[in-house]
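FORM 7B: Structural annotation worksheet

SECTION A. Query
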Amino acid sequence: MLKKLALIILCLSLVVIAAGCNTKNQTEPNTPQNPKANAIMNEFQALTQKDTSPEEVADFINNNIADVSKENAAKMVDEFERIQIKFLPQFERIIFKADMQNKINNEYNSITEQSDIKDTELKELITKTQNSGYKVETAEGMYFPVIDYEFYKNFSAHVTTDMKDYIDIMAVESNHVPAKDAALVISWDEIVKRTLNQDDFIETHSDSIKIDEIKQLHQKYVTFTLYGANNTPLFSYDAKTIDPEAKDAYLSAVANGGNSKFIKTLEGFLDVVKNNNYRLTNQVEQYRTDVSKKYTTALSSSNSEPQNDAQATLLNDIEQLAQQGKVINCEFAVETTVIDTVKEQWGDADKEDYIPDAKGTYATYAKHNVDFGFNKGSQIFDVRSYDYRLKEITMSKVKEVLGTPENTHQFETEDMLVYQVGEQYQLLFIFPKSTEENSAPQLDHYNVFYPRGTVNSMADDPGIKY
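SECTION B. Predicted structure
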């Protein structure tokens, strides 16, 4: 019996030793004992240091990501996203061509089924676009490429938890964009849900390599929560009452509790709104302005790069709305609106001044951060925005995002950049004059300008065009 027991113990000991040896011989990816993984990362680094296309990089990652550590897999994905951002303008230039826009329009319903696309050139472009991790979206009657984060789910099983969560959040964004044509296209409930998910990421993965990107997205959603969008405002432009569906969504979110920073912010906002009978008043406007500034300051202090990205997003929104004759946070367009309509909805202006050099009268609405220029026929030809978010934007940033302006003007105390938006409107950015003390002044305001509105045929006055 003792001999048998000793034999059992000896066998168990051999099993344990064998298992220990086995474990010891297993090498983790990217360790000195795993030369294959190390070689993959060296090859990846060499590949990305060249001007390698997103398609080639994606192919390399797909073929090798399973053989490296989760941390290095996350680094691969992060680098791939950087390369996609870098190459996006090249895809835009091709897709923005008039003939390609027409081809996409003719076969748009088939665009996700490459085999059904009849035009050879278009089929090749769509194939390359999708293999590079982009997809084609549409807004304002235009087609354009965007990063397809659903594509990244091919990598999710191999990356770190924070990168997987990042991919999940971004895939929701690219699968169902929150806004199009300056209007929200998701529900207020969905806005709250997404904002809470971002809040949770920030709390859980504070040291993630993607923390700044999520903070930037979070700021965008806080703005949606407090303001809505230009064509779907949180408070109606006429009665200044809160959207009833938004009100229900916000009350429900707060009632469900939770200790997230966003819920606390939303709870404070609702308290102020409730105390003002769910209407937009000066107190409510001041509260949400203060909240927005707090988020902007926090983002700017954590990392300057995401703030620049937020500025790029804002400038792109400005350009898109300018094509409709509008500025941000204002529904009144040049050309198609008369000043009486503004007065009916916003009340009398703080002041009105006739400015001969500007060919019209200017009405100031300080609490809306907007001025309107209108002619003798009451037609609005100029809308100026003094939104506080503009104050951090430099001239170089405008040129970086919107490209070289069609024209520039130097005045005694100001410099102006002029962009043509469509056939009828001009987009004007006004900066204080550069000085030795301030060599990179920040944007003071911008205008959406309708030159034809300044023409006076009766007086043989050709008007103004910058």
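SECTION C. Observations
Confidence is low (pLDDT under 50) at residues 1-27. The first strand starts at residue 134 and ends at 139.

SECTION D. Sign-off
Analyst initials: ____
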